[in-house]
Amino acid sequence: MEFYAEEGKNLSSDNSTLVLPALSVGNVGQLAVDLLVASLRAERIGYLDDPNVVPCIGNDAYWSSPSGELVLPLEVYESSRNALALVQQRSPVVKGMMVEFARNLANFVAANGKKHVIVLSSLEFGRWQNVDMSSGSQIHYLSSSNSDGTDDHCERQGWKRLPEYNPTQRMWKHLDDLAINTASEVEELPFEELGDEDYYASLPYAALFSCFKAKGLKVTCLLCYCSEGDNIPDAFHLADTASKALGLIPNSSQGNEGGSWTVPFSWKSVYGPPPDMSLF
Length: 280
Description:
Blueprint: E1 2-5, E2 17-21, H1 28-39, E3 43-49, E4 58-59, E5 70-71, E6 74-79, E7 84-89, H2 98-111, E8 116-124, E9 139-143, H3 152-156, E10 160-161, H4 170-180, H5 204-214, E11 218-226, H6 232-246
Parallel strand pairs: 2-7, 2-8, 8-11, 9-10
Antiparallel strand pairs: 1-3, 3-6, 4-5, 6-7, 9-11
């Protein structure tokens, strides 16, 4: 994985916390990172290039007067005021290469002085076996702070550790082995088929969790259950959760559309451009 800085910019070692999405149901993690980048007025400082990410290209996603600047699959942003770095991922990882991508990203993050990584992602609502909304929150977490995945700070926030996480389960153990065995470039599964118990460990956030943990980094995965459709409310919910984890206080005076979050310009056409009214 290579980092290409924009002219006159570079990664700051002072920004020790990194936030990034793991692609999943409804792209909620990506949408939440969009909200963080736009609301914090984070500055794009460069791009990451990795052979395991599907190439893509687009226009500026955040501001109302796009200047024609290109958007690439992996962009790096910084908010120095909040000592925070962010990575936005716009396209998926090549099939079968998620662990290799996670290894490369973990190596890059560790080499650039990051200490804590927060991964934002979503889970399929239909997989939620024990629905419990007594806390008023559908957020679950997974942390490397303790071997069982628990974290005191997350518990104080009222979030629940992902109950399906079991470090001794075969898929989680396989991920840990792959994360440590850097000589392996192919993610061959030693199982004939995957069962329901393998679902959670088969998702992108799990590979990132294992690889960041293997590099000795603190990693916190914040996860929300959702279904495909209009996932904007889920993105607001996950962004709110991330701001609590980071100790951020969104500035309501800077938000748009009546909230404390700045909604990116590209969201206005999330379902395509509006119809030509002259047709009517």
